[in-house]
Design brief:
Blueprint lengths: L2 H10 L2 E5 L3 E4 L8 E5 L4 E9 L2 E6 L2 E6 L3 E2 L25 H13 L6 E2 L5 H4 L3 E4 L3 H13 L1 H4 L1 E6 L2 E4 L8 E2 L14 E5 L1
Antiparallel strand pairs: 1-4, 1-7, 2-3, 4-5, 5-6, 8-9, 9-13, 10-11, 10-13, 11-12
Protein name: ARB-07466-like C-terminal domain-containing protein
InterPro entries: ARB_07466-like_C (IPR058593)
Organism: Nocardioides alpinus
């Protein structure tokens, strides 16, 4: 690419985009490119609008650089859920639950603050032992919560999860989510909540 056309493209670049994942920064768009570093997720960059050989030209510190095309967005990406964070919606769990249940509540509450109902201690089964929790959430958001907990199952001390007539367990994790028999009602089939049992 000619220096003059590169300089014109850089000077004319006014549009911005957000990185949607970590991206390698390259000196050029071809096989002679050298890797200069990495752009983190959710970084705002100026774009020239030029693409070549599967790479997209961006402007960093006044210079032309290249990243893999297809990973820049007009909208800032939402942060991925993670562990940590504050529970700011006023919910809590009772003193009689295990540390793992406390950790799950904190993680879910900080990442999904709209969820306000958690079932913990009751008179039967694992709930009576303080090692189980029902997180009252349904539909697509229920699956997001279930997948979030599954992703962090080791750190949270999860033994198994149930949601929407499906079960996932650490012991049989290689099988993924497994279908369960119909128990007869929305609640018994866990369509209106995510059940978590911990160690």
């Amino acid at each position: 690419m000619r220096r003059q056309s590169v300089a014109r493209a850089v000077n004319a670049a006014t549009d911005t985009r957000w990185t949607t994942t970590e991206l390698n920064i390259w000196t050029r768009p071809d096989e002679q490119a050298q890797r200069l570093g990495v752009l983190e997720t959710a970084v705002k960059v100026r774009v020239t609008g030029r693409e070549f050989r599967g790479r997209q030209e961006i402007v960093i510190e006044g210079g032309a650089r290249w990243v893999t095309a297809g990973y820049l967005s007009a909208e800032k990406p939402s942060p991925e859920p993670g562990l940590g964070g504050e529970c700011a919606n006023g919910t809590s769990v009772p003193a009689g639950v295990s540390p793992n249940i406390r950790a799950i509540h904190a993680a879910v509450c900080s990442n999904f603050p709209e969820i306000a109902t958690y079932g913990t201690v009751r008179s039967d089964g694992e709930h009576a032992q303080g090692i189980a929790m029902d997180i009252m959430v349904a539909g697509e958001r229920g699956w997001e919560v279930a997948e979030f907990i599954r992703q962090y199952s080791s750190a949270l001390g999860v033994s198994y999860l149930i949601h929407a007539r499906n079960i996932w367990s650490v012991q049989r994790s290689g099988e993924g989510w497994r279908s369960m028999a119909d128990r007869g009602s929305v609640t018994a089939n866990h369509f209106d909540h995510v059940h978590v049992t911990t160690y």
